[in-house]
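Progress report, Aim 2. The chain analyzed during this reporting quarter is listed below.
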Amino acid sequence: MTQDWTELLVSPSQPGANPPDATYLLPLHGISGVIFSGEDAGKFLQSQLSNDINLLPTCGSIVAAYCSPKGRVLALPRLLQWGGSILALLPQEIMPSFMRHISVFILRAQVRLGVLPATSCVAGVIGCCPKLPGTLTGISMPGGTRSLLIGMTDDFATLVSDTSERLLRASISVWQRQCIADGEAQVVASTRELFTPQMLDLDLSGAISFDKGCYPGQEIVARTHYRGRPKQRLFRAQSAPDATLEAGSRIVVNDARAALSGHVVRADPESGHVLASIRLNDRDAELRLESGQSLRNLAAVHDR
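Predicted structure tokens for the chain:
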């Protein structure tokens, strides 16, 4: 039996004792991928997602929203070229619904759907990405401090064993905090159809092309862009550490009316760091989670 490659990682020292240039590696067990293959795969995804698939050869990877006809985000995959196919990385918990929903529109297109094999792994790197064996694929992530690695589990064991660099073990909490710091939105089962793309700042982060053809929900997304003004935007905030803190948690104004102000998009329960979509009119108000914990240090992800 192949040794679990995570056992080969170096355990970190006490918090704050590791050098600032340390590199951390962790498996992202909650992330997997859908493989779109066939001669029409690119054309098909161009007709279904918010971003321009033609950017893939030059960008390495792109994020795109998969929307309902009402312009609500059903999934937020990260796409990359995968051999002669296209790989869409997204949370495992929404993969079945994503595949079921998008496969309805294949019709006569020459497109086949598959998934990453069970012997594969998606991992996260925080810090400088180590030199990779040719069998692993690496993707730089927003913010410049993280990377995603995709490959077979044996390839990760080779990476950890052969690299001359110290690769430290990290928890999912460390990864979530960095994702929140980088302002990277994510859609999970509890937040499907909760947000429009603009509520997640996807128009500001390059996940929407307003020059490409139609896709489900495009009319509503474009109307908001050209004729309207988003009422909610993406903010970082801090709450008290709480094991119940999770994506989809409701955020309200902290007064007698407790009016709904937004929802948590991403959270790290261990530290209380939060990425949230909040009404712009409430950005200067006192806010709290519906469960009672106050939100503080509210800061917009993108300057507007």
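Residues 153-162 form the longest helix (10 residues). The longest strand covers residues 260-268. These observations will guide the mutagenesis work planned for the next reporting period.
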